Here is the input.
Amino acid sequence: MPNSLQHFFYASAMSGIVISSTSQKPRYFFHTSKISAAATSYLKSRNRAFPFLPLSGCKFELGWKRNRPFSWECKRSFEICALSSNSRGNNWVRVQPEKDENFREEDMFVVVNFYHFVFIEDPQEEVSKHLSFMQGRNIHGRIYLNEQGINAQYSGPAKDALAYAKWVKEDHRFAGVLVQISPVSNGHAFPRLRLRYKPSLVQLEGGISHLPLLEPSIRAIPLTPSQWRNRLEALNKVNDCSNGDLNGNCILLDVRNGYEWDVGHFQGAPRPDVDCFRSTSFGLSDSMVSESDPLAAIDKEKTDVLMYCTGGIRCDVYSAILRGRGFKRLYTLMGGISHYLKSEGSAGWVGNLFVFDARLALPPPVFKPEVKTEASKTQAFLDNSFAKCYICGSKVSELRHRNCANLDCNLLFLCCMACVNQLRGCCCLKCTSAARLRPVLPGHQRYQKWHHYREVELERR
Here is the structure.
């Protein structure tokens, strides 16, 4: 649990119920007065409650897995240490963790992301050097190198993960790398380490090795998070005044997959009609009119195209393609959405951020928990009306995808709990009769390898 020794917890001494917050800087308030049966039922259904021993001085263990209590792993002990009252006369029991002499923050797991375009004369030798540095270090993830540079997303204990990033930046070729760090609460976010030479740092039809990515002037002009916020606010103000019509001199372009937009995006950004970035074709059609192409029929000389993606690399790559197609006024968000959320909070952002690791989706406070703007209060957590169930179209309560239980489909989709139960975790009725059907996953778990379920089935026979 991140920074667990720094947090205080409050537990109920009368009702036997513990209620937890999901904020990134947890403050847990456990009311001692009676909780209604309806409220208790709701809290239990949302994994916000569990039995508690109501005796001063006693100890209990709180398990944490993926920021969720009651998954009894990585257990830590806590002890009731005080009883106090608030202004309304309600009693509170104050609980704090026992001191753990072996606990070190450098052992906490983090996810690190960075990329950099730079000429590497002998990428195979570079791969060997990086593999040598990894020896004895607990790092999992995807790290690719080639003649155009490096693209890395990995997880590990802070001491190992940050040591690798520091070592990379000590090389003058990578000195300008923007390293982005986010927490992970349940060990590795990646199953294993894949560090190798890869012809394309980003997968795109036709490859990217022919693109002049090493020339900054070919790529889009990077905007700092504060500059991006100013441009975004101005664009949305114009759109509001024109009853939602896009400003003819500026367009906001989400250079991601449609399913990423489904859990979060910048206000005013149209949903990209793309299932996989590999097949993105914005601005590449010879036809002047295309309903699915936001860049169709715009003035390439005068229209500002504001591009954004998760970490920035897809925008850099795609902007080089658009530059070759005659688009003159290209701008990208420096460091992508993750860098923006860390710098500006959730201002102008709605929903969560989809990530390509075991966490799947992250709320904005993960990146900058101390930001408490009105925008972060109203947009990040309250405005999820755009998120719809893939099956029935109803609103979903949690902005997090799940995979279809049919292994041969494995579709990533948003789903309400009613449809999860009705279709046994599948995306459609057809998939419910598939040969390789996995069990319904409760909560935010991820499916394991197929052999795991085969072994479980054989044990039952």
Remarks:
- Residues 1-99, 243-247, 372-382 have pLDDT under 50 and may be disordered.
- The longest helix spans residues 225-241.
- The two ends are 38 Å apart (CA to CA).
